[in-house]
Amino acid sequence: MPLSARRLGRGRTASGRCRGVNPAELAILAVTIFVAAGLQGSIGFGAGLVAAPVIALVEPSLLPALVVTLAALVTLLVSIRERAHLDVRGAGWALAGRIPGSVLGAWLVVSMPALALSWLVAACVLAGVGLAFLGWRPAPRRRALVCAGALSGIMGTATSVGGAPMAIVWQGQPPARLRGTMSAFFLVGSLVSVLLLALAGAVTADVLEAVVWLCPAVLAGFGLSRCISRFLGAARLRLLALAASAGGAVLLVLRLLLGA
């Protein structure tokens, strides 16, 4: 199960097969994506918040393209499942801001070093969690949706963590409508981000190989989300996602400080 030599520091034999693969790293990534997809499918956001800090610890060179690409898959599945509850107008205004924000985010990917992007991931996650806990609840009107969409595009494309702005604007909506509308928004936004990252050269063969190996974890997490949403209310799921996100971001900050 090889991720490439350049990305994971492994070598290849003369026959082309990967040697010395550490299965623990792939297992960590798979478990992380499984949990992230389960949360995303249950509450409409949280995949990037949970996955990005852990991936930044295991293999930061796969960010942000790996999370953004896998997020496109899980949001497609959720959008299909919750299509009857989609707020088309609200998602449209948010996307009007997301596209130019994604262009700026792609520029950050090619302009900033990997270490700076890792710090940006941690800062974005902690800022998003802090604002959510502070209880800021802007009304989901046109201006707020466009601004949140733009900020989500910048954060999502540059760091794969773009859920917090939209979650703040759409919080308080019925669970099914929240999941459906946010998933449709993130589906289009993720596809735009993947395209821009590909044009910027960030969607490498190593990222695509990782996507193939981790797709089963996405599908399993999406399947689990049906069970989770039945037994846990939206408020508890949201709290769980924010707590996991904050913990991952703190862990990343500690790793960056120790490695400084």
UniProtKB/TrEMBL annotation:
Membrane-spanning residues: 26-56, 62-80, 92-110, 116-136, 184-204, 210-227, 239-258
Compartment(s) of residence: Cell membrane
Topological category with respect to the lipid bilayer: Multi-pass membrane protein
Primary location: membrane
Pfam families recorded: TauE
Keywords: Cell membrane, Membrane, Transmembrane, Transmembrane helix, Transport
Keyword Kinase part of the UniProt annotation: no
Annotated coiled-coil segments of the chain: none
Family: Belongs to the 4-toluene sulfonate uptake permease (TSUP) (TC 2.A.102) family.
Full protein name: Probable membrane transporter protein
Organism name: Arthrobacter deserti
